[in-house]
Recover the amino acids of this structure.
């Protein structure tokens, strides 16, 4: 499994960048996790849009779905050019029925429901889901293939469920949107120390921080995470290929 960060920011993208999102690859299958602002531009540095095989959406805040409409339009353009593709599956929860309905578009994309504490086969991946603590319903996601697993917290406050969900993951991509001085003051997000504690309690092999704030020095967030986690930890690097062999 190869995992390539496409963006690392929460809320909105910095200049020439994208919000937190990932391209997950295995045996020529390409899955996109979250599709916020700037993601389609970044994605095209690695694959053509028509090579995308599936999309998984954690929740319906704009920084996770803003480019869905553009993705759908890209496929209808290919249709008009005489290069149609099968309907692209977009996996999302149905707690917000209005937003879920928008995942299906003119036979170009097809919304497929996902549910907490369940699993679905997406190409070569077994994908499982866990609810997070966020102002809107949100799902953390685990991709497993060939005995290797990658967990993405999506957006969340501290959650004991996530400790269990992420147990012994080979890599944990954790949101870390808060500096320590903001801990408990912004609902739905983790500070660096909490991301590190989550990784330590879940006994994961590697921690990668994402969904970062735009202000301050994010190396301070990494510093706090490393104080709690004894394994290797880093800030997600756009374009870096994280390989699970």
């Amino acid at each position: 499994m190869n995992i390539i960060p496409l963006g690392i920011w929460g809320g909105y993208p910095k200049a020439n960048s994208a919000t937190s999102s990932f391209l997950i690859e295995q045996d020529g299958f390409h899955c996109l996790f979250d599709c916020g602002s700037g993601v389609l531009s970044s994605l095209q540095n690695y694959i053509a849009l028509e090579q995308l095989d599936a999309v998984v959406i954690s929740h319906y805040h704009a920084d996770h779905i803003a480019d869905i409409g553009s993705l759908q339009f890209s496929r209808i353009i290919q249709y008009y050019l005489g290069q149609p593709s099968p309907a692209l599956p977009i996996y999302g929860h149905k707690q917000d029925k209005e937003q879920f309905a928008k995942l299906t578009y003119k036979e170009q994309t097809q919304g497929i429901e996902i549910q907490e504490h369940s699993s679905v086969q997406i190409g070569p991946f077994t994908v499982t889901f866990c609810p997070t603590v966020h102002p809107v319903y949100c799902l953390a996601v685990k991709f497993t293939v060939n005995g290797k697993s990658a967990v993405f917290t999506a957006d969340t406050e501290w959650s004991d469920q996530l400790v269990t969900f992420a147990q012994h993951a080979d890599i944990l991509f954790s949101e870390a949107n808060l500096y320590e001085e903001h801990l408990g003051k912004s609902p739905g997000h983790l500070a660096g120390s909490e991301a590190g504690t989550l990784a330590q309690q879940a006994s994961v092999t590697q921690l990668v921080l994402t969904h970062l704030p735009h202000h301050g020095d994010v190396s301070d967030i990494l510093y706090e995470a490393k104080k709690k986690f004894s394994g290797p930890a880093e800030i997600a690097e756009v374009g870096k290929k994280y390989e699970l062999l």
